[in-house]
């Protein structure tokens, strides 16, 4: 029976970052991935945005430290196109409080009035059926990356230090032992001192197969894509906080979307019925979108992994020996993966993450009914 110091479930960007940093610390690392190759789940289907504009310090720093790592990583293909938040009046004061916190942590963020916010394109501050826009914030260090490239780079580095990646190998069952866990796969049993649950949208099911209750559910998300635009221009990834509609440039096209909070569960395929309610609010705010044609074949879907408070679950499972959670990122996994890998290596090797206080994101918050208060959830 093969024995690992750390066995990671999931070869997406979170699992890959954990594998790299744990192998770097000298551990014998294994990675289980049920797909034929890494990064075929949420990582490969991400809209690829990275941002620091959160309202809680832990989220701000998870993203900021990760972005700085991506900046120095050629495989990340980091492009600082920025994030532009259009903020309605009802959210303006809390949003400005978030900017103050971001700046206090050394993060570059600008506050813009309505005129300055329209530097790249026009929008209707007052639109039928939507709350009026009061102003905007812009993060010049926010941008986009190549999640697939990052994931493969981390796994390559992990392999160079001895880690083994088992693709087409499903996590079927796990049983606690005196020294850790015994894990069943279709290819046989494995032993591990520590299991790290980085299974993304499947993290709740992975927990269930180990006899654990982990509050992570899949949520389907649509990414709609336009046909090529005659005169494309680069501009920030833009989010209308009054409706949740977002869009950004993708080469000579635009991609756009809007979360459907009711679309929970493992439902596969494009939900074309969600296109109309998405475009309804998008066109109201950005009338010029009417001149863009949709490319159905270029559009895609993927899963978010959502928790009750839409924030990740990080660290040791309370009362359970040898089980670590790194899951439930609710759409923020790509932008926080680099730092999460470092922190989970500290959690496993040193006994507790020390580079950043992650107590607000530990499992215990659900036991204490102390869910995180992050406001900038899209």
Automatic annotation (TrEMBL):
One of its GO terms (cellular component) is cytoplasm. Residues 5-346 form the FAD dependent oxidoreductase domain. GO terms for molecular function: oxidoreductase activity. Keywords: Oxidoreductase. This is FAD dependent oxidoreductase.
